[in-house]
Amino acid sequence: MTMKSQFNGLPLPALKVDNELSVIDYSIEALDLFGECHNFTDIVDEGSLQKALNLLSSDFLQQTFELNFISKKGDLLLADVYGKRNNPMGFSLVIVPKDNQLQHISDQLSKLRERLRETDYDLFQEKERTLELLQKVRELSAPCIHLDRNRLLVPLFGDLTEEQVLAFTPRLLANIYENQAETIIFDLTALGKIMDEGLQYLDALLQSLSIMGTSSVFTGVKPEHAKRLYRIRTKQPMCFAASLQDVLSSDKWPSKS
After folding, report:
1. Helix axes 196-211 and 223-233, enclosed angle (nearest 10)
2. 183-187 and 151-155 beta bridge pairing
3. Closest alpha carbon to 30 in 20, 48, 43, 19
4. Mean pLDDT lowest for which of 64-73, 131-140, 211-220?
5. With CB atoms 3.0 to 4.6 Å apart as the test, which of 32, 56, 160, 179 could cross-link to 194 if both were Cys?
6. How far apart are CA 47 and CA 26, in angstroms?
7. Which of 71, 61, 77 is nearest to 53 (CA)?
8. Count of C-beta atoms within a 10 Å radius of residue 224
9. Residue 202: its pLDDT value, please?
């Protein structure tokens, strides 16, 4: 390109290109906006490139069309292009940038993406906090109460689910180990339904208690609970009492304190 341009004095970016779209002349404004370029396709955005090639390869050059350009700063620039065929060997193209509307929208989209990323992180943190609180609720739904040196009471609340059993099992086993408890009293007075998965995990817990030499006693058992518990009673030695008071006053499970 040469600085002795036919476009001198034109207050707009302008280019003269040949049929191969090589730039053979340009205005000062074009240099300021796009920098040095050897081919028109160097400054056209990839998304507009095929459109530009189709328009400029046509025998009939459309006088006005719209393209996205890339400035020398790397900004996306939407502009109207006014074209004129000078001779069979080339074109003159005047580029009229629009009022930064596309850049404004692009900036807005970038900010929106950033806000969405922040929102996703906030939601992730809220989810983590919710899961922690839910875990606490599950643990509290089966508190471990020390009655005396060798007996622990586990009152169950709500429905017996896999999540609930998994939540209180580690704490219960730790208490048994630390206190050398010999009897665990499961009070089902406030228990709702016994779910299939909950029953399976309760069965596994009772097996662990049996291995540790710890007895299991169930109180407050409703008819619907009995039907469910019968499915595992044949596998594990389980004892039943009508109420917690019966257990505490019975000689069958005495306290060593």
Report:
1. 50
2. parallel
3. 43
4. 131-140
5. 160
6. 23
7. 61
8. 12
9. 93
